[in-house]
Amino acid sequence: MSPDDTSISPERLHERIDRGESISVLDVRDRDEFEAWRIDGPGVDAAQIPEMRFVQADIQGTTAELVADLDEPIVAVCARGKASDEIAGQLRDAGVDAVNLAEGMNGWARVYVRRELDADAAGADVYQYRRPASGCLSYLIASDGEAAVIDPLRAFADRYVEDAQEQGAELVAAVDTHVHADHVSGVRALADAEDAELRLPAGAEERGLAFDADLYDDGDRIGVGDVELEAMHAPGHTSELCVLRLGDVLFSADTLFLGGVGRPDLERAAPRAAESRAAPPRGKAGDDGARDLAGDLYETLHERLLELPDDTVVAPGHYGDADEAGGDGTFAASLGDLAEGLDALSMDREAFVEFTVGNLPPRPANYERIVATNLGRDELSDDEAFEVELGPNNCAVSDAD
Q1: CATH homologous superfamily, domain 7-108
Q2: What is the pTM of this model?
Q3: Distance between CA 237 and CA 364 in Å, rounded?
């Protein structure tokens, strides 16, 4: 970024954050928006100063004083990049080195990064995709001219197709590990575009699945070229969730993260149709079933996942701000390291349940509508789908201090 630049692209900003550079981010949105969702990272110094204060400072000639505590250059941020563009210009007029984040937080939400996972995946190539704005992780597996995507995001469906083609592979399967509550799934978009198999856990039917899918269950295998993904039923985050194994790699979805475990309170039955919010009954829905699902999660972790070899590479469905990428640029860790390092995994059942239900972060924005959409019981346009999933994922219960 040169001194003459007036804006920085979201992709360029992410590259700088990824390198660990010290960056001052000036967020001019309202305080509640900033607190709920903002740009973060190890070297990011984020400050929130609302737009109105800059209007007043411009009149009083005190613009530079507002940001005196921030190191230059400063990156100004708002929702869509318009208000922050004006404020960045105001700062430059006041002698402050400042640029605008092009397209604002909406542009930040479109950053999508791919890295190859350095692990023994039974001879397949595995690529991890991360969305820095939300911490969502997805995976592409390529083997012998075929490819599958695990937990794809609808907003990036075209990207998976292009990347599979780049690998000389045909996309043959789009696989969800569970009914997601934080983002709109891309499995149907990929199935429609590429005639790929649409695979969901069998338990999705009990939750009200309203479209045709190839269902898989515990012990089933999903073929991709010369390799097979093996499904393991892993209830806890949701009742139907299945993790997937490939060689030494465990795609742990929202069951086990690098810094915590899955939250158990997002299983809400979806409406029967877009015009009706009446829901079919469920035994473990929402708050009422969170404690039961937390118990299921404990059993999944201790009776299934922690029984796997210590050198199993855990490739989770999300990462958090405190998590660090490995040498290959991906967010993954050995099961043995997680078992030793996460306090939540050393608790007894009762303590684990109390910890899990007692430390729930705010629920993802619009999660009930996202669940309904992912079950096919509500419909969203591409623009609507992008809007409803803006914000942090909040699918994890962070580990105890």
Answers
A1: Rhodanese-like domain (3.40.250.10)
A2: 0.92
A3: 14
